[in-house]
């Protein structure tokens, strides 16, 4: 059970699949509390990631993470681009020292928080990344944890991102970035042999 | 959705291509990007560069304000989506003529983060940059713990002021001071009659009934602060002026610049009628704007509606900057 | 109908008032009329005056082209309705600086007759006038027995050429010759996605289905020559270029000015994409426009759509006239 | 049975009434083959006419015709303004010599034709003014003549005015200016003692 370029690629492809399948749903989530483009943004990003991994097959984990990061940074734009990009860039850095997914995700989560300034409870992807990274570190991540984290954003008042312009009226809606992040974690636990 | 486009996924590259090829005297495109630069290289020599940009869909912003006396370059993101750091970085590199580059960013999480990352990249090249994050939209409550207010049409006035100062030789630090001084004096508030349709989404960002309007809507269909039955222009103007008054304390002893900005699908006919009502209200307070502009400057694709920007001219120089001649497509 | 207006019967006076008060540096209103004149009196001294006008609803035309180097005055009729002779006559009187006044009229029965009556009135005062009746819209078949072709966006290019010549001292006869020479070389054809709503009528001038477009529509919702399912921008451009080609015989050995004109509710995004496709088509014929403009110049209130104007530059001077600097709101 | 300032005023008021009642209908007629404003144009015009006759009561027939003409010329605009205006201006001139309605209308009709260049059969108001002026001269104008003239425009191909842009597709629609002119003639025959 270890992280390899192959199962990383498998994980990312599975994430890409989910994003593409749920593209419209992600944009729909982004409509009442955002600008309706999260599905399109993420779909553009995962397409670039897949093309990059196809065209230049990385030999090393660090290169793989870096290619993923660069594809996301240069193709997604918006808020999610720099955030997802930073997450994978931090994993790239960390992967020089360790392949432990708990540590990698902790670094990624720290990067997201630093880049966007959001804390847990601000109704952003951080509400998924932080608790689930912790669970990963403890070796106990399950789908119900993912669902709980994602669904937990529904009751929150947004403090960061576009949804924050709504203030209290953001309550009652899932955060789109939390949802797409949920797919990343689901794809992870569904990837055989990676955990 | 009925639009003059080819492929919803391809609107930005085709739009930028059409724009640049239609106006080569003003613009050139940085190859392999959707960033556009001022063609008139000579006009930038020895001066601080000014780069702005953001999601597309706000045309003529931002590329329409690239030219002598205003912006050095503009980076065009996907529709309503911040451009990416690599493209912003390319524009910064080309805008730098040894004196550094000033970045004008609208206050959206995405823009702030992507411009930040580009800044980091530019630092590696020893290109000095400073940034102003414009947040003129008073429809949103400000707070230390949130993203804060949005950047909207007032950004164009920021471009104008900084562009004029840079053209007259202001240093990066001068521009920074100027931008910081100007910022709190620019306030904008908008009204929507119909939401914008993002090509890739295919339907309006929100639905308004046939007789409904919404106050305080953002330029990406972000929700506003109240919905009402449609009213006469006069009453819409009253609502917007009241909101502006709350933050700027409109006073006949002060000087103001005013911008009435169409959202893309609202004809000038309506913008001029609104201006008539607006000027009546201001005149009622003994205020005659020292500078005024009416038209489409910072649009929201095909949104129907308009925004009102009031800029308190604390210094006479700021008015000179607004009146300073420029060579751009859209100012 | 959802519009930013007060009273559908009062849009023109309120609009003109808002326009003139927003831009006093360019315009002043003739009291008790909806005619507007250039504020810069000095710039008109000793020169032939140029007066245009027509129904309102085409903003920025025509008042937006009043200013140094372009029109001396513009008369704003009711919405889509020719102005009346008394008001045209007032504008002629004020535009006359001893050298006579040249009238630019779009070829509609109403405009032609009202300007004619105004001319008769001016003759009584011994004010010399000449007229050009612009009929650039090739969507309509020409014939000796009918009204003939309509005047549309190409009229703005006529204003520009004549304005530049007048500013450089052309006599009334010179202008007459110039206008006659230029006229057959300006051709326009439009496309509509959605009709305009005249405020007093309250509903669109015609109905197009959600997936329908119409070629050849006039700027007052006059019907076009064919209806089709919406197509990619590329194919719309092809249809319009084909029509223009039929009359102008586009050829790489000739020089052209091109105007892509938005109808009021079509965002620049779409106009630039269309321009991209248009330039590809022209480049395919080895034609690179010598002059190009893209934007809202001659609108049809809130119609969605655009028109393409091609102006064959038979003389180099005509290009100079297009590039001649002006001080107007909208050129 | 003679034309007086009083019954002229009555006639014009009755015309105004019909125009106001049928304002929407006139604009509707102007929609498929024009620009949909004929009702508004005419309503604006007759309002100005009534105001003028109210504010400055004319003593002489010539003055009355002139006031009517000037109000129409300076308030209607479009195509119908100069045409109706010219018609009444010609009647004003002619009224110096005669009060015979046949002669007055013949002069008016000639004025319309000169101003607009239209002939009978061009699907304009001339298709009402010319035949009905003739009938007036013969002293035999009846509502059925009016209806026939107005309805006759339906089958014509427009050669002048906005409808001409439609070519053959103008067939099948009544001409709005013919319809409003019909009201003028109907108002005339309904005015007691004028004929
Ligand atoms: N400052 C931030 N910190 C963390 N996450 C953020 C922040 N701002 C936005 N997000 C995340 O980004 C998502 C929106 O992404 P997206 O729609 O692609 O970008 P944009 O808001 O620019 O259109 C939000 O749902 C939220 O999860
Ligand atoms: N050249 C002309 N000669 C006679 N009548 C004309 C002419 N042009 C237009 N008309 C009449 O004017 C009517 C249209 O008037 P109106 O709608 O008020 O003006 P516009 O066409 O300028 O909008 C037509 O129905 C027709 O009867
Ligand atoms: Mg979004
Ligand atoms: Mg976005
Ligand atoms: Mg009309
Ligand atoms: Mg009409």
UniProtKB/TrEMBL annotation, chains A, D:
Residues 6-190 form the DhaL domain. Signal peptide: none annotated. It comes from the Bacteria. Keywords: Kinase, Transferase. GO terms for molecular function: kinase activity. Gene3D superfamilies: 1.25.40.340. Coiled coil: none annotated. SUPFAM superfamilies: DhaL-like. This is Dihydroxyacetone kinase. The lineage of its organism: Bacteria, Bacillati, Bacillota, Bacilli, Lactobacillales.
From TrEMBL, chains B, C:
Signal peptide: none annotated. One of its GO terms (biological process) is glycerol catabolic process. GO terms for cellular component: cytosol. InterPro entries: DhaK_1, DhaK_dom, Dihydroxyacetone_Kinase. Coiled coil: none annotated. PROSITE patterns: DHAK (PS51481). The keyword Transmembrane helix does not apply. NCBIfam families: dhaK1 (TIGR02363). This is Dihydroxyacetone kinase subunit DhaK. The lineage of its organism: Bacteria, Bacillati, Bacillota, Bacilli, Lactobacillales.
């Amino acid at each position: 059970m270890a992280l390899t370029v192959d199962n990383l690629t498998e994980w990312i492809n599975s994430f890409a699949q989910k994003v593409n399948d749920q593209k419209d749903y992600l944009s729909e989530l982004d409509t009442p509390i955002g600008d309706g483009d999260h599905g399109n943004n993420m779909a553009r990003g995962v397409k670039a990631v897949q093309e990059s991994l196809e065209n230049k097959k990385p030999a090393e984990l660090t290169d793989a993470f870096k290619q993923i990061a660069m594809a996301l940074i240069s193709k997604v734009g918006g808020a999610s681009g720099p955030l997802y990009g930073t997450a994978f860039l931090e994993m790239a850095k960390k992967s020089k020292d360790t392949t432990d997914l708990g540590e990698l995700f902790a670094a990624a989560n720290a990067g997201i928080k630093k880049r966007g300034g959001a804390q847990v409870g601000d109704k952003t992807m951080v509400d998924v990344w932080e608790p689930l990274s912790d669970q990963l570190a403890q070796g106990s991540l399950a789908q119900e944890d993912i669902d709980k984290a994602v669904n937990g954003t529904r009751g929150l008042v947004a403090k960061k991102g576009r949804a924050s312009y709504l203030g209290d009226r953001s309550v009652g809606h899932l955060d789109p970035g939390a949802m797409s992040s949920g797919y990343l974690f689901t794809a992870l636990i569904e990837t055989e042999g990676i955990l | 959705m009925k639009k003059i486009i080819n492929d919803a996924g391809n609107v930005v590259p085709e739009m930028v291509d059409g724009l640049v090829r239609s106006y080569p005297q003003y613009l050139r495109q940085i190859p392999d990007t959707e960033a556009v630069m001022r063609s008139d290289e000579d006009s930038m020599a020895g001066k601080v560069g000014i780069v702005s940009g953001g999601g597309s869909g706000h045309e003529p912003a931002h590329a329409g304000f690239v030219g002598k006396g205003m912006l050095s370059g503009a980076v065009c993101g996907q529709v309503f989506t911040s451009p990416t750091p690599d493209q912003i970085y390319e524009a910064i590199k080309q805008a730098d003529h040894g004196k550094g580059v000033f970045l004008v960013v609208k206050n959206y999480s995405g823009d702030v983060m992507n411009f930040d990352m580009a800044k980091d990249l530019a630092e590696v090249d020893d290109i000095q940059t400073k940034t102003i994050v414009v947040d003129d939209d008073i429809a949103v409550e400000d707070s230390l713990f949130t993203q804060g207010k949005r950047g909207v049409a007032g950004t164009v006035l920021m471009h104008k002021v900084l562009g004029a100062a840079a053209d007259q030789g202001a240093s990066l630090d001068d521009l920074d001071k100027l931008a910081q001084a100007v910022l709190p004096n620019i306030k904008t508030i908008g009204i929507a009659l119909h939401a914008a349709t993002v090509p890739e989404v295919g339907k309006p960002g929100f639905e308004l009934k046939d007789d409904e309007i919404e106050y305080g809507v953002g330029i990406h269909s972000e929700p506003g602060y109240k919905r009402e039955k449609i009213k006469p222009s006069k009453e819409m103007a009253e609502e917007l002026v009241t909101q502006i008054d709350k933050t700027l304390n409109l006073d006949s002893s002060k000087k103001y610049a005013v911008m009435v900005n169409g959202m893309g699908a609202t004809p000038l006919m309506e913008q001029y009628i609104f201006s008539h009502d607006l000027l009546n209200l201001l005149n009622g307070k003994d205020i005659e704007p020292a500078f005024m502009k009416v038209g489409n400057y910072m649009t929201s694709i095909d949104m129907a509606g308009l925004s009102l920007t009031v800029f308190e001219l604390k210094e006479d120089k700021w008015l000179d900057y607004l009146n300073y001649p420029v060579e751009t497509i859209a100012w």
